[in-house]
Amino acid sequence: MAPATGSTTDLLPSPARQRACLAATVHNEPVSDPPPVGPRVHPPPVDRALVAEAVELARMAGRSTLRWFRSRDLAVDAKDDGTPVTVADRETERLVRDELARRHPDDGVVGEEEADTTGVSGRTWTVDPIDGTKAFTHGVPLYSTLLALADGYGPAVGVIDLPALGETVWAGRGLGCFCDDEAVRVSTRRELAGAYVMTSAVDHWPPGALDRLHGAGAVVRTWGDGYGYALVATGRVDAMIDPAAAPWDLAAMPVILAEAGGNFSDIGGRPGADGGSGVAANPHLHDALLTLLAPR
User: Fold this and answer.
1) What is the DSSP string of 3-42?
2) pLDDT at site 83
């Protein structure tokens, strides 16, 4: 799928096309208490301009990472938790924070590399400048730049930019999910046998869970991170499992999966990005995966 061209407002399809793409959308419950909207009423669609702006910012940040990608003299440091970090991570997050401070000074910002910025608007942006730093530092083009926006109703915008692949998966609440300018949906597979399941690593899985997944006939592939969620949202694989993940790794995923017709939760089945893990799948497989992942 070729990346979109033109202005950021051109990224957004017409309202008629959005209504057609959203006819079967399945929404997750919001992760925070929204303003009263009445029973069984979905939160209102997010502002289309905010979605276009988020896509623009994520692509800008993603392009900046390419300056260091596959650089022979890229220094890799270790954070206190042992995970790698580079100048590309730090400078890309600073770029996004500077842009958000200029454009939306009242909004909060949460990121992987710097302290949280408290806002007063009721909106919070979450940025992961390089999701998949291990892939990035090994020259593997499957890393991503993640950007999310939450408001008083919960997840509002999510963007997975894959700069080395020239592809962006993005969604706005009530507006659908897209890979560049093409509307996308999760897969329709109903059985775990033969299902393709992505994961970022196998060392944090619940005891026996990976064996049970193999026993069910699923095909497990790695190099997941944000790339795995993008594959689920676009229907190219059937599920993505992150047994251990931080909020900035997951903040973009609830709205992306919901707008693509899928389900997203932590391993315990709780919606939202703060549970320390992530499970994304089409609605036919999600509960079956949670059962396999449950402690025995």
Assistant:
1) PP-S-GGGGSPPHHHHHHHTTT--PPPPSSPPSP--TT-P
2) 87
pTM above 0.90, yes or no: no
- Mean pLDDT of successive 10-residue stretches along the chain, which has 296 residues: 43 44 37 50 93 98 97 91 91 98 98 96 98 95 98 98 98 98 97 97 92 97 96 98 96 98 97 97 98 92
Domain 18-33+45-183, CATH number (from 3.90.70.10, 3.40.50.1820, 3.30.540.10, 3.40.50.2000): 3.30.540.10
What residue spans in the chain does CATH classification 3.30.540.10 cover?
18-33+45-183
Gyration radius (Cα) of the chain, Å: 18
Q: Does domain 196-293 have CATH number 2.40.160.10?
A: no
Burial class of 128 by CB neighbour count within 10 A (0 to 12, 13 to 18, 19+):
buried
Query: How far is residue 79's CA from residue 138's CA, in Å, rounded to a whole number?
Result: 17
Contact call for residues 160 and 230 (beta carbons, < 8 A): yes
Residue type, 66: L
Nearest to 243 by CA among 296, 195, 194, 198: 198
Environment class of residue 188 by beta-carbon count within 10 Å: exposed (0-12), middle (13-18) or buried (19+)?
exposed
For residues 59 and 165, give the distance between their C-alpha atoms in angstroms, rounded to a whole number: 12
pLDDT of residue 11: 54
pLDDT score recorded for residue 12: 53
Pairing of strands 239-242, 196-199: parallel
Q: Which residue has the tokens 């390089």?
A: 130
